[in-house]
Design a protein that fits this description.
The structure holds 2 protein chains of 2 kinds. Chain A is mainly beta. Chain A contains no helices and 12 strands. Chain A is globular. By secondary structure, chain B is an all-beta fold. Helix content of chain B is about 0%, strand content about 55%. Classes of the chains: A mainly beta, B mainly beta. Chains A and B meet through strand 6 of A and strand 4, strand 5, strand 9 and strand 10 of B.
Chain lengths: ~110, ~110
């Protein structure tokens, strides 16, 4: 069935390091794709989205490109900060309902 | 615009009790969805409402119910609480004709 797979965490980085969090999806057709971020003790915040193949979503220095050839939507940031420490979720809509299908989440820890 | 608000933010109940959680969507959004987040199961879809009608329901027992009012505010109710119902309950709202969901801060329910 339709699903979203994320890399296992935690991802531990030093400040100013380059970040990649992998996300792949299975789908019939070309669904919208999302990255959400969850800071400790908070709900999910929409970080970025892409609605069609080759779209690039970007926000707060984070980017992700919708790659239909590899069915991927990897999250990247060129220089992470301690304040980026959070859990990141990749998601896509279900094909037949309005619910979102989430990956398992990847915890990012950034140390000074 | 104000974001999605959820009340209360924290709840402690004992087994067998019931609980009602409230969600106010972003102004103008008529679709409201509910999710349960636990460390073991991740993010799971509970149900979705649009214009006071439940459009979709996840795979949860009948103890979990919800409703939506004419002003789009939504409530969810859990009866006969079990220890396993301890979770973060997240509400999300969507504008019409879009699959983007905006989440509230969540209600942390602890069942003792």
């Amino acid at each position: 069935g339709d699903s979203v797979t994320q890399m296992e965490g935690p991802v531990t980085l030093s400040e100013e390091a380059f970040l990649t969090i992998n996300c792949t999806y299975t789908a019939t057709g070309y669904p919208s794709l999302f990255w959400y971020v969850q800071y400790p003790g908070e709900g999910l915040q929409l970080l970025l989205k892409a609605t069609k193949a080759d779209d690039k979503g970007s926000n707060k220095g984070f980017e992700a490109t919708y790659r239909k050839e590899t069915t991927s939507f990897h999250l990247e940031k060129g220089s992470v900060q301690v304040s980026d420490s959070a859990v990141y979720f990749c998601a896509r809509p279900s094909p037949d309902t309005d619910k979102l299908i989430f990956g398992t989440g990847t915890r990012l820890q950034v140390f000074p | 615009k104000a974001g999605v608000t959820q009340t209360p933010r924290y709840l402690i109940k004992t087994r067998g009790q019931q609980v009602t959680l409230s969600c106010s969507p972003i102004s103008g959004h008529r679709s409201v969805s509910w999710y349960q987040q636990t460390p073991g199961q991740g993010l799971q879809f509970l149900f979705e409402y649009f214009s006071e009608t439940q459009r979709n329901k996840g795979n949860f027992p009948g103890r979990f119910s919800g409703r939506q009012f004419s002003n789009s505010r939504s409530e969810m109710n859990v009866s006969t609480l079990e220890l396993g119902d301890s979770a973060l309950y997240l509400c999300a709202s969507s504008p019409e004709l879009t699959d983007t969901q905006y989440f509230g801060p969540g209600t942390r329910l602890t069942v003792l």
